[in-house]
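Hi support team,

I submitted a single chain yesterday and got back a structure, but I'm not sure I'm reading the token output correctly. Could someone confirm the output below corresponds to the sequence I sent? I've pasted both exactly as they appear in my results page.

Thanks,
R.
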Amino acid sequence: MKLKATLLGAAAILAMAGAAFAERGSDGHVNVLYWQAPSILNPYLSGGTKDLESSSLILEPLAGFDEKGALFPRLATEIPTVENGGLAKDLTSITWKLKPDLKWSDGTPVTSADVKFSYDYCKAPDGGCAQASKYEGIKSVETPDATTVVVTFDAPKPNPYLAFVGATSPIIQKAQFEKCLGAAAPTCTEANNGPIGTGPFKVVSFKTNDTVELEANPNYRDPAKPAFATMTLKGGGDAEAAARAVMETGEFDYAWNTQVNPELQTQMTAGGKGHFVNGFGTLVERIEMNLTDPSSDLPEGERSTVKHPHPILSDINVRKALSMAIDRQALVDVGYGTAGQPTCNLVPAPEAYASDNTGCLKQDMAGAKKLLDDAGWKPGADGIREKDGKKLHILFQTSVNPVRQDFQSLIKSWWTDLGVDVELKSVDASVFFGGDAGSPDTFQKFYADVEMYANNFDGTDPEAYLAGYKCDKIPSPATQWQGENINRFCNADYDKLAAEMSATADIAKRGELAKKMNDMLTKDSMTIVPLVDRGRLSATSNTLGGVVLNVWDSELWNAQDWTRTK
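Hi R., thanks for writing in. Yes, this is the structure output for that exact sequence:
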């Protein structure tokens, strides 16, 4: 297996050149705005992008992905390959070597025991790990010495770069988390909100769902970095206000996920204080259909669990009709312009893994109505369809966001025309994407009929992402509501395809398997209704240098290289 490992893309090298000889902390303070405020700084206990990316300033994996999607080493000396002896020729094991003299931000040494512990933490019995799919197929993790980690797989692993790679699979300190295994994991508030890390910054204070105050890690491995002595990562507000805080008021240096329409983008850029950065990757805005019953009439602990199938959405005809009624191009025009494109795929890229599924792109209201008619869902006296005395009522939830509320309004109008009684619900993004097992409003708990959001996967290979929809990845009380299988989809044939992909080396065959799984989730079962292939759109001040947008990993992937240019 041949793989090129690049330290950084050319764009990043050029961006960093001016800061190559700066002193750590010489550029003072930087303000970053994530309007979806972080709720926890432990990525193993949250699937929310705002939590994963905030954590990436502090916690690091052995390797990451650069702005071109290429692997590069972080805590490892190099990317293991067959050619350099780090990857077994039969692909049954991979050996990672840690860089020498690595230290945690508290000054203690980083060892292979910390790497092994990170695996043990995620796989601990009675626990819930949001990133469990990254550790699929591992037989053992061994530590022959303090700087060597040997990962052995159950079978040949054509893509061995899942565990400990990317922002979703970082290394956590054993000494800090060793009493937080399994069921105890969410109770370790101090560790979860103030992890000791190896990244460019360390936590000074964290106010949940509000603000993270950080300072330069005094033990960061590059003595000249980061250039900023302190950072404030502020949460709250909305996407438009976040964009204005960079582009118009100059209050912030960087604003993440600035979902504003094309007209506003042009108006804000004209102010001359900042500019937008944009790039397409694998970020898909979609609707998830709940296959389980979220009714509040059920006992707590049984709502939205496989014990109770959904009384309406278990009918595939309803799911298909709801998708057919949507005009995806209209959504793009209203919400994203050139920063979006309509899609029917959960995995829209890279090209090798993207299905040619295009059947959903044209709205078909007449066909949707006929499908429901034929399935026995007939309009009642009030115009709302019903069957066997059951009204076609849908609770549609998403996070608070102007673009998403526009989408909700449009989709409600189409579904109302279809004969559906639609109730809208908007949840503060910090709560919706949080990992609080006690909250009724998280997207993982899914106490609604359908919900809309977007996420993506690390790197360019969708193996772990698609494996997240296996039966054993369903969030439930037993997993503290952690898990990637949000809609509770469970199909034995799908699980077999995921296992086959894990053992398949041929790129063309891997692409075929990925496309089959994509189609099973979307056009075949319509449990996931893709809407828009979204480009990442964030705002950066004209005085902030070194920013290189990365759609394949954390957006904050090179914060250690940011500088003040004016």
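A quick pointer for reading it: The chain is about 25% helix and 20% strand. Let us know if anything else looks off.

Best,
Support desk
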